[in-house]
Give the backbone structure.
Amino acid sequence: MRTILLSLACAFGLSAATVSTITCSGQTATVNATAHGLAASQGFELTGTATQFNGTAVTVTTNSFTFTVPSGTACSTYTSGYSTVTPAQQIIEIAGVPNVSNATVTFNYIYWFTTVYPTPLPCNLGTNSTTCPTSAWSGANAAQNAAIVAGTTVEKVGSLTLPANTPASTVQTQVISQYNAMQVGFAGYLMASGYCYNGSAWATGCQ
């Protein structure tokens, strides 16, 4: 069962599309990629000769999507060096624990939700270097960890206990159903923070 769920997680990243161009308007980048398959608020990975970048799609059409460039980064950083876009991984199974006493199995997994309302995580200054939060999954790469720190990827650890004779397809269906239900919330304001109300409007960057 562990292998099946790991395969499921990896399958989310197999639908690659070719990036034709990336253009900029202020801090909004538009990625032009025919039939990219992404949905609004879905995570993506840009790869190529430039450093991999993980972000969240904001507005989406069949052949293009936009994303917000991280604060403090020039939009022009993303206009070259990226040739491929793929959906970001969403579910990673990290351990399956058999419960012999009651013939069940507890599946522990990581959900990577994405949001267009990111709350960056603080990095603590260590004695030798800056230490930033990292994923509970040891296999996370630098771009995935950077997205967690930026707040565009929200990592949550969960578990599911089912009878040991549960078909693998049932486990997959339940885990994906949980993910999809929560992702709808993250696509809205669920878990969004860092917003302040001044009597007439909500805004980020509270002073």
